[in-house]
Design a protein that fits this description.
Layout (H helix, E strand, L loop, with lengths): L6 E2 L6 E2 L1 H6 L2 E3 L8 H10 L3 E4 L7 H15 L4 E4 L19 H7 L2 H17 L4 E2 L24 H17 L3 E7 L20 H8 L1 H8 L4 E4 L18 H11 L5 E6 L3 H4 L4 H11 L3 E4 L3 H16 L5 H17 L13 H14 L1 E4 L11 E7 L17 H11 L3 E8 L5 H13 L2 E6 L6 H13 L3 E5 L14 E4 L5 H12 L5
Parallel strand pairs: 3-4, 3-10, 4-5, 5-6, 6-7, 7-8, 8-9, 9-10, 12-13, 12-14, 14-15, 15-16
Antiparallel strand pairs: 1-2, 11-16
Helix pairs in contact: 4-14, 5-6, 5-14, 6-8, 11-12, 14-18, 16-17
Length: about 525
């Protein structure tokens, strides 16, 4: 039954309709770079209180600013605007920001002051672009297990280090006026499945969780983090009812709120992920997430999913399936967060901090790990080199790829020639290369003195693994540069030179090339 009159909430000094309050639970994604009637209609129908932006929403800094201000002006209300700006492989804004390496590169250096500098720069840059909340840092702790989703997004395997660096970045971001988000509670760095695709079940014991995976969240809360994002996996040893963390009141209320004392805003991860799709419809997922203790649920892509979530939440409150008192508390926390980040587009002009690119370069160079046959470096400049590199430009429609690497061959030629290298061939191959690409690459490698193979996740791409194995068998000498997660180290042969750079940003690729040739880098 629908409420015919507005409701009065005692902790809010004015009358507000239930429909408007329920909308505060929603943080939604939209299509396009400009305000459209369809976009406004979705916000008006659902009263959504938050906007999460992705790469397809960004055409230019000016257009992005116009998108946010245009939405708020047309709706006549403030939105809570968030973005995943982790650095490294998770960057959505292509202008006005510094392109930092992934967390694992910072974890190699283990320097709090450097991470604080990163956080300060992020705070200044993202506030200029109109962002209220950075859904970062990722403070999941890695284990020895292969982690396809977290990997280089984590600071590493040491929980104390992850806690120290995560807290430093949180404090710096928030001091610069940007709300941070500690994710993914209670920790999924040990997951061997990607929750974007499937539902992980993590049998980590309660003792292991407390000693390892919860440690960074305890420190983040002590640091005053404004928001926390949950994870989707099932933790049978933490919640014996085997509910995904997103649906678990044991985890999201009893553990996070009561035991750890977190008082800020709790976000769900995207409810449209594959982890939850086979459990129940998305509208029911939203109700379960809110009942578990989430203040904000993310519905990042489909308008029909947003509408379904809103309608299910509204009906659940109307029918007293969800508690109105808890809604009041959530709205109070969300409103306080919005008011905390009240000044939109700080400083007016949008620009990236000049210190950002310098910091990125320094971190990339210091993070390079030469894990095999360091004695074979630096490369002899008389050597004829064949270069094999993944076609990063093929990802440009999906993720942010820096302009230089939209033409991989041109930038690689420039970088190697600056070092005085003699290039015999440059092969740009698919992420899962074809048989023809593999054959051509092997022929070129056989003719050279040294093959330099930039490896992009052989763990995920079978043909990349095949090429990695064959090029090491074929080339006289092979230098393997691991661009993403370091798990591929196990497939670098004993005779090859092995380097991990913990990411594929231009600063890291240039740092790898420098390490091949410069004595000072060895």
């Amino acid at each position: 039954m629908r409420h015919a009159t507005p409701l009065f909430f005692t902790n809010r000094p004015f009358f507000v309709k239930l429909e408007e309050l329920v909308g505060q639970h929603l943080m939604i994604g939209v299509a396009g770079t400009e305000v459209t009637p369809e976009m406004l209609d979705l916000f008006r129908k659902t009263h959504a209180g938050g906007l999460i932006v992705f790469r397809p929403n960004f055409k230019s800094a000016g257009a992005f600013k116009k998108l946010i201000s245009g939405l708020e002006d047309a709706l006549g209300r403030k939105l809570l605007v968030a973005v995943d700006h982790e650095g490294g492989r998770v960057i959505h804004l292509a202008e006005g920001v510094s392109v930092f390496p992934d967390n694992l590169a910072f974890g190699q250096i283990q320097n709090e002051k450097i991470v604080e500098e990163q956080g300060t720069i992020e705070g200044l840059e993202l506030r200029r672009l109109g962002i209220d909340v950075n859904l970062a840092p990722t403070i999941d702790v890695l284990t020895e297990s292969f982690s396809p989703n977290i990997g280089i997004r984590s600071y590493g395997k040491d929980p104390d280090l992850v806690a120290k660096l995560g807290a430093a970045r949180i404090r710096a971001m928030q001091a610069a006026g940007l709300s941070a988000c500690a994710k993914h509670f209670p920790g999924q760095g040990q997951s061997q499945l990607d929750a974007h695709l499937d539902l992980p079940v993590l049998f980590t014991t309660s003792s292991e969780m407390k000693k390892v995976h919860l440690v960074p969240f305890v420190e983040a809360i002590k640091a005053g983090v404004d928001t926390v994002m949950s994870s989707h996996p099932i933790y049978p040893n933490l919640d014996h009812e085997r509910k995904p963390a997103t649906f678990s009141r044991v985890l999201m209320h009893d553990l996070l709120r009561q035991e750890l004392g977190f008082k800020g805003v709790v976000f769900s991860d995207d409810l449209e992920m594959g982890a939850l799709k086979n459990i129940c419809p998305i509208g029911e997922s939203a109700c379960r997430a809110v009942a578990a203790g989430h203040d904000v649920v993310l519905v990042c892509h489909k308008a029909e999913a947003v509408l379904e979530v809103y309608q299910n939440l509204l009906e659940a409150y109307q029918n007293n399936v969800l508690d109105i008192g808890q809604l009041e508390k959530s709205v109070a926390r969300i409103t306080a967060l919005k008011n905390k980040r009240s000044k939109r587009f700080a400083e007016g002009r949008i620009f990236s901090e000049k210190e950002g690119s310098l910091l990125s370069r320094d971190v990339a160079i210091c993070a390079v790990n030469i894990f095999k046959n360091k004695n074979l470096l630096p490369i002899d400049l008389s050597s004829h080199i064949s270069i094999v590199f993944p076609r990063l430009s093929s990802l440009a429609s999906l993720i942010f790829i820096e302009k230089d690497f939209l033409d991989e061959k041109k930038i690689l030629k420039s970088c190697f020639e600056k070092k005085g290298a003699k290039i015999s061939s440059i092969d740009i191959v698919g992420l899962d290369p074809s048989a023809e690409e593999i054959q051509k690459t092997l022929e070129n490698a056989k003719k050279s003195d040294l093959a330099v193979f930039f490896c992009y996740d052989a763990h995920l791409y079978p043909k990349t693994r095949e090429l990695l194995e064959k090029i090491q068998q074929t080339a006289k000498t092979c230098a393997v540069i691991l661009l993403r997660d370091p798990y591929d180290e196990e497939w670098v042969s004993e005779k090859s030179i092995g380097l991990s750079v913990f990411g594929f940003r231009s600063s890291q690729i240039e740092a790898a090339i420098e390490s091949l040739f410069d004595k000072t880098s060895i």
